[in-house]
Request: fold
Amino acid sequence: MKDMNEGYVTADGRQIGGVIMEMKNITLRFGGVVAIKDISFDIREGEIRAIIGPNGAGKSSMLNVISGFYIPTEGEVFYKGIKRGPMKPYQVARLGIARTFQNIALFDGMSVLDNIMTGRLTHMKKGLMSQAGWWWTGAAAEEHENREKVEKIIDFLEIQNIRKTPVGRLPYGLKKRVELARALAAEPKILLLDEPMAGMNVEEKEDMSRFILDVNDEFGTTIVLIEHDMGVVMDLSDRVVVMDYGKKIGDGTPDEVRSNQDVIDAYLGVAHD
Amino acid sequence: MFYREAGDFKTSYREDSQTFPIKFDRLRYYAVLVVAFGIVPLFINDYWANAVAVPFLIYAIAAIGLNILVGYAGQVSLGTGGFMAVGAYAVYKLMTAFPDVNIFFHVIIAGFITAAVGVIFGLPSLRIKGFYLAVATLAAQFFLVWLFNKVPWFYNYSASGQINAPERTVFGVFVTGAQTSAMAKYMFCLVMLTLVALVARNLTRGTVGRKWMAIRDMDIAAEIIGVNPLTTKLSAFAVSSFFIGIAGALFFAVYLGAAEVGEAFGIQKSFLILFMVIIGGLGSIFGSFAGAAFLVLLPVFLKNVLVGTLGWPTDLAAHIELMIVGGLIVAFLIAEPHGLAQLWRVAKEKLRLWPFPH
Reply:
């Protein structure tokens, strides 16, 4: 079922493509602290890939390596089969990798609409001079074209009524949704979600889960997510990587992972005799 | 004619993204333009032009420039006076070196020269933020003033060390020099301010403005979304210095006519314009106008009341005036830390719902 380049078909009948991103022997050190130790795994096109593990296991660091914010001390990252050199975060964004943050990182001084419009930055090419001209130089036309795409995402995530509200005034659950919208506006190939459901109540979690599945379904976006809620992870994801103390201790479908002895030990603890 | 959104439906993104989405606002804006261009020039005299109108127009340009840097991009700068000096000396050198070229172009080119200088002094912003950056820009202020004092080439080796604006015309009308009429000064500065405000508005409502604000609000998230911090910060410095350079050029050539750098473009100027931006409202074009109006009009107003109405001696009035202005600034900032623009916004919000606020 897991042939390297062929992809596979999930239980619910979705076609998963070939490997879009591959992490090879990634090690990440901060001084003496080893955050990630020799981890390899791959991400396939169109799948929902979860990274789980106890607190401090190195999940967020892993996500930061994928998003290019950390450059791994050792190991290689392949994106679409090409080795990715050291890059600035904004260059990675242009490759089509977008993310949300564990503690919301929206632009508080801007409206919801402007926040989501910033997600379109990588698609907007008009420079300073044509911006200054606005109507005469086509910047307005470009703006409105992109506005149309953003409005589709606003519809999709059902946040039409808060379009013009300053982000600072929104409740937590909506902020999370706006952040997802901003990431989606970039039309990413890979979407990284860092604890998308942290601090939400059951209803909000249900909404968010539905949005994640819809995004994957509608846009075919590959999704990598970190989440603590096991119920959500097992329901949503196609394959799961389990980390503990910077090492990979399990990798496979939710069912495989659930029955993995190392994983059970890491989560429940091992009896010492 | 009421201040209402009801019934004012937007059916295209073009309509939705206009500067004044409410019809009443739009009409008011056109009315202001008509008064400023059509009516004021007919009545303006030397006193009003020199004491109120021209300084207001020029400071408004400088405040818009500084607001782009501080209010939109979140980079604190105390180098405004120095950058205005660059604009002033650039326009002086251009006016004396190329007397045949129209002064309008000299002013614009002086803006571009200032933009280049601003980018150089903006380089530290890539590494340092906040107060530390403020100190770094303070260095620009002192260095530039020192430079224009020290190197005689900048003031064409004149004996006094001053620069004097030669007489120049636009469409045959004098705009600099002793023969300039109040109306010409006013109109020239007004046209510049209108252009600057339009460009500033266009920049801040589009991609460039959003990049600046993203860097201001959360630089790490901005970078991960695809904002290049290098070009974004430097573009903010460039645009900001461009406007400030234009303001400096006008301040010297049109308003003062003759200037000595330490006196005209000292550190007080940097603070004055920073106060305008803070009092007017950070991150608001309207705020720049409001702040400039407040700090230009208030002293004139107080002087008229104290000397004209109450009959106090001029020197006493001058000191009391400073104290009152200072006190008002403090009181005002405690009452509304987000500036006049925020007051205006709240007032409009209330007016929109009036008389049924619930």
